[in-house]
Amino acid sequence: MIRRIIMYIILILGAFMLQNNFFAAVHWIDITPNLLLIVTFEFGFLRGRMHGMLIGFFCGLLSDFFFGTNVGYYALIYTLIGYGNGVLGSLFYTDFLNMPMLLCIVSDLLLGLYVFITSFLVRGAADIGHYMLRVILPEIVYTMLISLLVYKPLKALDKWVEDRSKRSAKEFV
Amino acid sequence: MNNNESKFQPRHLLLIIVILCVILIILSSISSSVNSSVRGVLNDVLTPMQSGLNRVGSFISDEAEDLARLRKIEEDYKALSDEVAYLREQNTRYQLQEIELARYRSLLDMKEEYEQYPSIGAHVIGENSSNWNHTVLIDRGSSDGIAVNMNVIAQGGLAGIVTSVTANSSTVRLITDHDSQVGAMALITQDSCIVRGDLEVYQEGRLILEKINKDARISDDYKIVTSNKSSLYLPGILIGYARDIDTDSNSLTKSGYIIPVVDFSHLDSVLVITQLKENGQ
To answer: What is the extent of the structural domain holding B119?
Structure first.
């Protein structure tokens, strides 16, 4: 369990800093892929609602602390996305590669709509078509591409940590 | 932590977290200290790593950009040398106009005085990547004398305002953010207007210029600076140049766009003005 928690902490912090510090400094990337979302939905899908929800909560909280105006704003949606993917993960066969792609699209779309509705629509920016095309869709495409790249490695890492935990549990107990 | 799922249903925890989030959202919208106090702890640990990664990113980005630029520079050089001749001729004419302008300015008793404000340099170490908001993280905080609502300038123009501060870093909301509204005026005519950030027009490198009185004399290429009447921004900081001013459908106001002087996609170092606007509160 300790190993798993350490892995999560490293992944979350790594994704956060890569996204906000490294990618942000590379000027030619206009729209950054949402790495925190990838970690959230992937582990939600692989490890169930509990893991997805908690990872989502901390990912969201981290975004809130550094850049949000309201603490809890992103934490709320990431938690729900993590939980939702956990539910879906228990319903579907996990090795089907198109499934995470689909999850990624749905998750990112949800996140985009959430931000649009809660902080843009209320301010009278009703032109959803523009935001859809220029912000939400590009983010989905980039996030999906990255998630395709990292899905297998993350899954392998997950399995490795799982095996190590089991082995050491056998040794000690 | 969560290995006894049988006793404790995940949906209970979900409910707890959702309620917690809602409480946090409400609390932090009431008082901003909630945000900055918790953030301070995290920040001390993460800031060094963040600025390191940021430097790596900047380095790679700059190197690649340099290569691409080199080819373009050669092409540009030819075109530019022709232009220099043409501009030299024009310059003479502008010099005459400048003398005239200086006379008008002294009549209006207006100076660009923001160079006199005390300021402190800072590096941009992080950028909000949510694609929705334009906020950046800088590597100076309250220990360097930075406080909330201090104005941030870059490349000779207004870049944003400090919205929250920890010991070693602060968050700056750029004027391109959709939450940002700056009270402004035309430098020459002193007609007031509002500069508002908007995600949609920002993609064309513009901001919205609005709430201009229909009788105001603001037209294309007028210098827009922060207004004396603004409650948060110090007066006389250059924002940009007016563009495409048109009368609104209500026939009472005019609006248009402003081209900011700051290049927001290459915001590496900024100056924080350590003087706060005194608004009599």
So the answer is: 114-276
